[in-house]
Amino acid sequence: MRPIIPDYLAEVLGDVESDTSGEPAGYIPELAAADPERLGVALAMTDGEVYGVGDIDVEFTIQSVSKPFAYALALADRGFDPVLAKVGVEPSGEAFNEISLESGTGRPLNPMINAGAITVHSLAGAKDLDPAERVEHVLQGLSAFAGRRLRTDEAVCASEMEHAHRNLAIAHMLRSHDVLTEDAGAVVEGYTRQCAVLVTTRDLAMMAATLANRGRNPLTGEQVVPEPVVRQVLSVMFSCGMYDAAGDWATQVGIPAKSGVAGGLIGALPGQIGIATFSPRLDAHGNSVRGVSLFERLSSDMGLHVMEVPATSRSVVRSSHVLGSGPQALRVLELQGGIGFAGAERVVKEVVDAPPAETGVALDLTRVHSIDDVARRMLLEVVRRLTLTGHEVYLVDPESVVPDPDPGDGGRVVVVDQVDRAVAPRTAP
Ligand SMILES: NC(=O)CC[C@H](N)C(=O)O
């Protein structure tokens, strides 16, 4: 059988191939010299499977796609408060290299624009690292996200440093506000090295998939940063990742994303997929022209917009039926899927608003694969209230999806691994 997903990706790539609009980044001479025809797209699944077509193994510099990952490292290394004290999370609506700070606080508006990213670089790793150690720490962190050891392109780094006047101006301004506390020139050099790390489209897809996979690299299994950090990073990518095109992107593509001036672009769809594209010609915002087209197409074809969610809550109650009869009758509520707040609300409505006439009630979780904390508490509250109204309650939970089934406060529940076990003791004389 022909490969289904690569065939589809090849078709999408073919549709955007002829678009030669835009220009490679001109302000970094080495980037201006890059082959503008390169084109690739890769999808990385959270189990490590990668589907890709085009130039997905060609190396290019990561540039601003490094920003969310460096932000993740800084948050993990220093904690939220010290990082938030120095860098905000508000979309700036401005160009990536705008010389601007938040009025009042003097902080850069967010970590995706250069002012924020330069500050973030200085916050990666322990406080007492010297500039070279900090660069190595960031390089190791980016490598952990990619699942292989990455290296820096010295020529691109040197080329950007020769023309880094604007970033140096930003850094000096940050230094004058004490947002940067280290030597401004050294921090810009470190940040520029971070931007000059070489990656392939395949690497970027894996890095994005690590974010999509709650911070665990799908290939190596390493938990690169803690989950709360991932949530923070994805949120900021969603609102600020595409600079002054972030609003258009959020509405039309709807995937937390980040672009870079070498032509890389990533999207991380929580719980599902990491996507990366590579095409060096950029639009007026500094985002890859064909990359944006590819993402628009993938998002609409594959229904990837984060606001487009399946109606999972409605299908949480798979069935409600009665086993046995007379005083032995058992009401069985068969639940399924992953249960969050909205799913648990369905169960509450079913049970509390219309209390079962039967004395025995079983909540059958055999087909439930996950239950989050709020849903667990809601289900146990349902159990507690049923007990208080004279019901005998069973939790059919063969895989222990409810880890600590204690309803507390007068509630009582019998945990069994098959629904028959809930019937049997009741029907026995
Ligand atoms: N948008 C980008 O990729 C910019 C990164 C680049 N190194 C710069 O600071 O200008």
TrEMBL record:
Its EC number is 3.5.1.2. It is an enzyme of class 3 (hydrolase). GO terms for molecular function: glutaminase activity. The keyword Acetylation applies. It catalyses: L-glutamine + H2O = L-glutamate + NH4(+). Residues 332-402 form the STAS domain. It comes from the Bacteria. Keywords: Acetylation, Hydrolase. InterPro entries: Beta-lactam/transpept-like, Glutaminase, STAS_dom, STAS_dom_sf. Homotetramer. Belongs to the glutaminase family. PANTHER family: GLUTAMINASE (PTHR12544:SF29). This is Glutaminase. It comes from Streptomyces olivaceus.
